[in-house]
Write a structure and sequence with these properties.
The complex is a heterodimer of chains A (about 270) and B (about 240). Chain A has 11 helices and no strands. With about 270 residues, chain A is mainly α. In chain A, helix 3 runs antiparallel to helix 8 and helix 6 packs antiparallel against helix 8. The longest helix of chain A is centred in the middle third of the chain and has 30 residues. Chain A starts with 6 loop residues before the first helix and ends with a helix. By secondary structure, chain B is α/β, with parallel strands linked by helices. Chain B has a 6-stranded mixed β-sheet with strand order 5-6-7-3-8-9. A 3-stranded antiparallel β-sheet of chain B has the order 2-1-4, covered by helices on one side. In chain B, strand 6, helix 5 and strand 7 form a beta-alpha-beta unit. The radius of gyration of chain B is 18 Å and the shape is globular. Chain B starts with 6 loop residues before the first strand and ends in an 8-residue tail after the last helix. The chains are: A mainly alpha (about 270), B alpha/beta (about 240). The interface between A and B is large, with 33 and 42 residues.
Chain lengths: ~270, ~240
């Protein structure tokens, strides 16, 4: 088991330990509030963010991705609420626009190859200096989760009931989307546009198969998320495969195992 | 017994327009403490829209003035009992989770030993045995009891119910209306309920509003159910008896 002697493997391991629990936690609310389509669109917007960053001369792509994703999430939320068309159509229109615009900009001068890494990501490029910002992000998201989870839970059952209980529904939903946008963008460089939604949805969906309370859902999703992260990293090292997809495959495996088990857990 | 509580909520000329559609216009009525006001109307009459406007979930025009029990004005504490939601059958949220999240800021996903508070709030509606059930497994009647427990802990000044009869049989409905009746009398609650049980309403409601984009008729159940507007909208249906 000498695979974590290399610095790049150590950094990757720490990054996964910091970021996958966040994806696992946020995933429970994404699944429970039927926002999987939304988070998928959010992932796609990363390409546009990178493209706009290059056009505007922003040298740090993560910064331009986060900024664009925040605007994208906010706009998507406003339009979704005004409901001129059904929300899956609206989200699809946004996602298509974002990914098309991103690909057009990035391929324009023939240097798309430089950016194709964003599609599947590369977790082994994480440097030690990237870990502190991730740790800070992790701390603030966990704090946010402890403070506002109950509001998100009430809204997922009935927004009107939450509103009567004094929850500021629109604000809570908007803040959740923005937090999700930041976490997705923080992970996407290493996980990839194609795989980010899998890492968000699969652990929560697997946990849901065998949970009968919020407590179990949250803890199983955390464990599945962390487990598939670390397991995926180790497997990708041995198989010499891309890490993001290998992690996602572990998550998918957990989903099918829990799916087969669920009859036994449900009394 | 209908006692004349002072006016707790007065709604004057309320209108709601979403996109290009005008959903409600010139809605005027008052709600009193200790009284049950029923909103009736056909599908698309704007009943749920009215509730959402009162709860502050959608913007509206016109004036809504709340007067509290002590005579001061300002926002009321409200309880809302939602229609039985079409929850995903794999949703793990349990009755305990919902109750705990609604009465405390302590995150519902963390383990805690103190379950007595939740158990007590459910017991007031004979629902304490449902504490470990998932919300998606509840029958219509069980859902109503749990949601009433959530809506009335703590006891609000205005209780709003959206079609509480969904999925409840006649004997369950009788118990339900008895419970609401007891609440409004003992706690001096103002109750606003969207309902279609004309039979039960003629027994239990103090006021009825007939809604069709605006208030078409209002008054005692007897007055509204024998009005021309009621006959026009419901074709003089004879299901006044339960």
């Amino acid at each position: 088991m000498g695979i974590f002697v290399h610095d790049f493997m150590k950094n990757a391991l720490w990054a996964l330990i910091l970021i996958t629990p966040l994806l696992g936690l946020l995933g429970t609310v994404v699944v429970e509030s039927k926002l999987a389509f939304f988070s998928d669109a959010l992932g796609h917007s990363a390409l546009t963010g990178v493209a706009l960053g290059t056009l505007l001369g922003i040298t740090e792509p993560t910064l331009s991705m986060v900024l664009f994703a925040l605007i994208f999430a906010y706009l998507l939320n406003v339009i979704r609420r005004s409901a001129v068309a059904s929300s899956d159509t609206v989200i699809s229109v946004f996602a298509s626009t974002a990914i098309a615009a991103g690909l057009v900009f990035l391929s324009r001068s023939g240097n798309f190859n430089k950016f194709s890494g964003y599609l599947i990501g590369d977790i082994l490029t994480i440097a030690a200096k990237d870990l502190l910002p991730l740790a800070l992000l992790s701390f603030f998201v966990l704090l946010y989760w402890v403070l506002f989870y109950n509001d998100l839970l009430l809204i997922s059952v009935s927004p009107l009931m939450a509103s009567a209980k004094g929850t500021r529904v629109k604000l809570t939903q908007t803040v959740f989307m923005l937090v999700l946008a930041v976490v997705v963008m923080a992970a996407i460089r290493w996980v990839g546009v194609l795989m980010i939604n899998s890492l968000l949805i699969l652990p929560a969906a697997a946990a849901r198969n065998v949970s009968r309370s919020t407590k179990t859902l949250t803890f199983l999703s955390l464990i599945f998320s962390l487990g598939s992260g670390i397991g995926g990293l180790a497997l990708s090292y041995w198989w010499n495969s891309a890490t993001g997809p290998t992690v996602a495959l572990c998550g998918a495996g957990l989903f099918f195992i829990t799916f087969a088990l669920r009859g036994r857990v449900r009394r | 017994m209908v006692h004349e509580g002072f006016c707790i909520t007065s709604v004057e000329g309320l209108g709601v327009t979403l996109g290009r559609g005008e959903l409600l216009r010139g809605v005027t009525f008052t709600l009193n403490c200790g009284q049950l006001t029923a909103v009736i109307g056909r599908n698309g009459a704007g009943k749920t829209t009215l509730l959402r406007a009162l709860l502050g979930e959608i913007p509206h025009t016109g004036k809504v003035k709340f007067t509290r029990h002590d005579g001061t004005q300002g926002p009321l504490s409200m309880g809302y009992v939602p229609q039985r939601a079409p929850l995903d059958p794999s949703s793990p949220t349990s009755v305990y989770d919902l109750c705990a999240a609604s009465v405390s800021r302590f995150p519902a996903f963390l383990p805690r030993r103190d379950r007595t508070r939740v158990s007590d709030m459910l017991a007031a509606f004979g629902a304490e045995e449902l504490i470990n059930r998932r919300l998606c497994e509840l029958s219509g009647g069980e859902w109503q009891r749990v949601m009433l427990a959530v809506a009335t802990s703590p006891v609000p000044e205005l209780l709003i119910l959206d079609e509480p009869q969904t999925g409840i049989d006649a004997s369950g409905l009788r118990l339900f209306y008895e419970k609401i009746d007891e609440l409004k009398k003992t706690r001096d609650l103002a109750v606003l309920m969207v309902s279609h049980d004309f039979g039960f309403l003629s027994e239990y409601a103090d006021h009825v509003l007939l809604l069709s984009r605006t208030v078409r008729a209002r008054g005692s159940p007897g007055e509204v159910f024998s009005s021309e507007e009621f006959k026009e909208l419901f074709g003089g249906v004879g299901n006044i008896r339960p």
